[in-house]
Each structure stands twice: as C-alpha cells, then as structure tokens.
Design goal:
Keywords: DNA-binding, Phosphoprotein, Transcription, Transcription regulation. This protein has 207 residues and is of the alpha/beta class. It is 54% helix and 12% strand. Strands 2-1-3-4-5 form a five-stranded parallel β-sheet, with helices on both faces. Helix 3 links the parallel strand 3 and strand 4.
Length: 207
C-alpha cells in the first residue's frame, strides 16, 4: 500500500513570513498550503484527509494561535511560531498538546527538523484514525443481534452461556458468532477483543 501524501499547513498573518516558509518547505519537497488568517484555514473541511501538520503563528489579529489550537482539539500536530518570546503562552500551548514551539527568527535547519518530526507523528496518528474508521465500519455492518452476541463473546462466555443469556438456541448463537468473526475479519477471539478495543466497543459486562 502506498503511503498517503503528507501536507504542511502554514498560518501566519505576516505575508513575508508565510511566503518565506512556503518557499523553504516546497524547496525541501513538502506539499505546502499557506493561509494568511486562522479563519481561512479553519474553513477547510479536509484537514484530516491526509497526514498533515500545522505551522502556526501565535499572535495574530482576531483569532490567536492558541484559539486555533483549541478549535482543532489535537487534530494536527502544531509547530508554533512567535516573535514575542511569550513564555506564558508557550507553556499554555505545550500543555494543550502543541508539538513544538519555535521563536522567530528560526533557523531553516530547526524549522525543517521540527516539520519532519511533526509529520512523522501525523503519519502515526493518521494510521490510527484510518484503522479505527475501518474497524468501526465493520461494526456498523453487524446486525443488532450480532452486536449483542459479540458483546457477550468479548466477556469470554461460551456459546451455550451466550445462548442462555439471550434466550436463543446454541446452534443459532454459533451461526451469529461465525458471522461476527467473518464480518469483523477476526481470526481468533483475542484478535476480536483487540479490534473491539480499537473501535471503542465494550464487552457486555462493561456497559
């Protein structure tokens, strides 16, 4: 499977800074999109469609970088840029999950290193989201009865115990269980448990 294209978003109200960063990153082989306001950036509806990171100015007119960070809710790794050396804001940003915090003017090597690390993190998180979405799609294809059977199977119950709990014939439960394993693409109960955990599906006793 080919690796998805990574992107770097740049948000800075200073046109010179935005252009300089865009030139640097494109020259280094990155796919870059630059925005001169947080509002223009947040209007994008495909921010999570590929692995991406955000280079974000801290102090901007209107919406601040910290406000953008809170709106994104850790959707993207954020590398903050500031020309003010605001220690309090940097601490707040890091506490809220900022990936890195660089003070202007920043050297090209430091910027590129931070971008590289942020995109590696983005690829890991994107793979996790993609996998979770795929597993959730499998769960969505289960019938109501199959979900009930799976929830009980996840507790370690035997077919006859599941049948007793649901008031069904053991033979019927065997059929439902086989369909659950097939639809979830699980080769064992251990794998089914792992898939359920990734999809946030709980065993019957945990509900």
């Amino acid at each position: 499977m080919s690796q998805p294209t990574t992107r770097v978003f740049v948000v800075d109200d200073d046109e010179r800074v935005g252009c300089a960063l865009t030139r640097l990153l494109r020259a280094s082989g990155y796919h870059v999109e630059c925005f001169d306001s947080p509002e223009a950036f947040l209007d994008r509806t495909d921010l999570a469609s590929t692995p991406a990171c955000l280079v974000l100015d801290l102090q901007m007119p209107g919406m601040t970088g910290l406000e953008v960070q809170h709106k994104l809710d850790q959707l993207l790794p954020i590398v903050f840029l500031t020309g003010h050396g605001d220690v309090v804001s940097s601490v707040d940003a890091m506490k809220a999950g900022a990936f890195d915090f660089l003070t202007k003017p920043v050297s090209e090597s430091l910027m590129l290193a931070a971008i590289d690390r942020a995109l590696k993190r983005a690829c890991i998180e994107f793979a996790k989201r993609t996998q979770r979405a795929e597993i959730e799609e499998r769960v969505n294809h289960l019938t109501r009865r199959e979900r009930e059977v799976m929830a009980l199977v996840l507790t370690g119950r035997l077919n006859k115990q599941v049948a007793s709990d649901l008031g069904a014939a053991e033979k019927t439960i065997k059929i439902h269980r086989a369909r659950v394993m097939e639809k979830m693409k699980a080769r064992s109960i251990v794998e089914l448990v792992r898939l359920a955990e990734k999809a946030g599906v709980h065993a019957a006793d945990d509900e």
